[in-house]
Specification:
212 residues; alpha+beta; Alpha-Beta Plaits; eight-stranded mixed beta sheet; 6 helices; 8 strands; guanylate cyclase
Length: 212
């Protein structure tokens, strides 16, 4: 749960100072109706389910320049552009990772519930953040700032099987990097943020949005 560079410093007894990052992209996902799904599983089956799912996700992360920050229950938090800066590529890295996650859940099966399908909500936001190590016992590499909160809101206000992104992430994907298609969701009331115009990032098999 620590970046290699951070872990190396800690092993040498060196202090790890908090660091500011001007632009990163942050991704959240969670399992749709997880509480209902978990109610049909024993505790051991819940652990097995999440381990199998996260193992599939970890394989996708390994194919992209993304950093897995942590998992909290059925929630999954990743970032790009932190702890290693990568210019303007952070939004693209998480967009491609999100597509990989959606492909992975299409073939994912629950052993004891073969007729059930797992679905996820995904959210991405781009902005500044601060990263640092918190704690001495089992230290954690944590991200702080409004960008983290907004990325979480993108996920919680999203829809199953869709990648919900903010205007800043849309700017990077369509104007800075280019080549990505989005569908405007219009104005959405985001808790703690007020009214925001947000977008759905379209996968290759989703049609172009209809003209307004």
């Amino acid at each position: 749960m620590l970046p290699r560079t951070v872990a190396d410093k800690l092993k040498l007894g060196q202090a790890v100072e908090p660091e500011s990052f001007e632009q990163v992209s942050i991704f959240f996902s969670d399992v749709v109706s997880f509480t209902t799904l978990a109610s049909r599983c024993t505790p051991l089956q819940v652990v097995t389910l999440l381990n199998d799912l996260y193992t599939a996700f970890d394989t996708v992360i390994d194919e992209h320049n993304c950093y897995k920050v942590e998992t909290i229950g059925d929630g999954y938090l990743c970032a790009s552009g932190v702890p290693i800066r990568n210019g303007n590529q952070h939004a693209r890295d998480l967009a491609e990772m999100s597509f990989g996650f959606l492909r992975a859940i299409k073939v994912f099966r629950i052993p004891h519930l073969p007729n059930e399908r797992v679905n996820i909500r995904c959210g991405i936001h781009t902005g500044p953040c601060v990263a640092g190590v918190v704690g001495l016992t089992m230290p954690r590499y944590c991200l702080f700032g409004d960008t983290v909160n907004t990325a979480s809101r993108m996920e919680s206000n999203g829809k199953p099987g869709r990648v919900h992104i903010s205007g800043s992430t849309k700017h990077y994907l369509t104007e800075v990097i280019g080549g990505y298609r989005v569908e405007s969701r219009g104005e959405v009331i985001i808790k703690g943020k007020g009214v925001m115009e947000t977008y759905f990032l379209l996968t290759d098999d989703e049609p172009d949005p209809k003209p307004a």
